[in-house]
Design a protein that fits this description.
The protein is an alpha/beta fold. The protein is 15% helix and 26% strand. The strands form six sheets. It has an eleven-stranded mixed β-sheet with strand order 10-13-16-19-24-27-30-33-36-38-39. A ten-stranded parallel β-sheet has the order 8-11-14-17-20-25-28-31-34-37, with no helix packed on it. Strands 9-12-15-18-23-26-29-32-35 form a nine-stranded parallel β-sheet, with no helix packed on it. 35% of the residues are buried. The model has no long low-confidence stretch (mean pLDDT 94).
């Protein structure tokens, strides 16, 4: 999709310099950019590569001597990643409404809004509702009484369980599952895990009298707010009685698990392989780094950041930056690492002659 430098600058809210009428076909890294590409050189670190680029136009950092790089036009952007967000939005074509594919199976009691696309081999269950302008890709399944808002994008292979509610402009990436039953079982007598916690591991476990796991069914569902994105192969389990909640604007990466009854706030970010156990409460604007985890039935306050692989076992106050296992405030975690390193150095220093390092 060709755009002029002037139009791109307008979309970015940025300043165009030089030949504003110049047209480009796509954004590209400076090394691979051709004469019809827009080179992305938004920090000085890209200056050397921009100098050997074949591009005639580029996104550059504020104050860059763009003409010295042989460019005919440039757009100055003060915040590189924000410019990338707006640039990719401008160049990414919106899905075109293709109507309803003849292989789609749609229950007579469902309600389909105007300008809705439903792809091949989709199944739309009883009393489900799809809002205007929503795009549903192939092989998507909606169980009974699912509600999807307006202008949503549901990609191939997504499964939405019974009574799931998605807000407006929600994006669900391929093969995500929202509304499956929670992982919830109980034994007639205290289970091994219960007995272990009671004794804090001080008592050896004997075989239980009755180890049968009785399944606790999920009668609730999942409610997802407006402008949420759920990544590929991520799962959000239905609540046991009440709904699992995902707040407006929250972004969920690939391979993330949100357990049953979780209350997830607004504008949160859950990075790949993060997991939240059942009934945890997560405040607004919380960030869970990759592979981090939150224990069941605890609360994490607003504006908390969990570093990668941090495991939260107790309540976390608002505004904390937590690291490690078990997670602790960053200053304490760093102090612990320094102390451990210092102890290792001291131990090495007092080793007997001839001992191996």
């Amino acid at each position: 999709m060709a755009m002029t430098v002037r139009d791109i600058a307008a979309a970015l809210g940025a300043k165009a310099l030089g030949a504003e009428h110049l047209s480009v076909d796509r954004p590209a890294e400076p090394v691979t950019a051709g004469p019809n590409d827009l080179a992305l050189a938004m920090t000085p670190a890209w200056g050397e590569k921009l100098g050997v680029s074949a591009a005639r136009a580029a996104l550059v950092w504020p104050g860059a001597d763009w003409q010295a790089f042989g460019l005919e036009a440039a757009i100055e952007v003060p915040r590189a990643r924000l410019a990338m967000a707006k640039l990719t939005q401008a160049f990414d074509a919106e899905p075109v409404c293709t109507g309803i594919h003849p292989t789609a199976v749609i229950d007579d009691t469902s309600e389909i809004g105007r300008d809705v696309s439903i792809g091949a081999f989709c199944v739309i269950g009883p009393r489900s509702k799809i809002g205007a302008g929503t795009w549903v890709d192939a092989h998507v399944t909606l169980a009974e009484e699912v509600t999807i808002g307006t202008d949503a994008m549901i990609f191939a292979g997504v499964r939405l369980g019974r009574r799931v509610q998605l807000g407006d402009r929600v994006i669900v990436q391929p093969n995500a599952v929202i509304g499956a039953d929670g992982f919830s079982f109980v034994t007639a007598e205290p289970s091994n895990e219960e007995r272990t916690f009671q004794s804090m591991g001080r008592t050896q476990l004997d075989p239980p009298k009755d180890a049968v796991r009785h399944r606790i069914h999920s009668l609730g569902s999942v409610i997802v707010g407006d402008d949420v994105e759920v990544g590929a192969n991520s799962t959000i389990d239905a609540g046991t009685v009440r709904a699992t909640m995902v707040g407006r604007g929250t972004k969920i990466d690939n391979l993330v698990q949100v357990g049953h009854n979780v209350m997830l706030g607004e504008d949160c970010v859950l990075c790949a392989q993060a997991a939240i156990a059942g009934s945890a409460q997560i405040g607004d604007r919380v960030v869970l780094g990759g592979k981090s985890g939150v224990k069941d039935n605890i609360s994490v306050g607003a504006d908390v950041v969990l570093g990668g692989a941090a495991i939260v076992l107790n309540h976390v106050p608002a505004g904390s930056f937590m690291m490690g296992y078990p997670a602790q405030p960053m200053p304490a975690y760093r102090a612990q690492l320094k102390a451990t390193r210092a102890a290792a150095i001291r131990q090495k220093g007092v080793s007997k002659p001839g001992e191996s390092d």
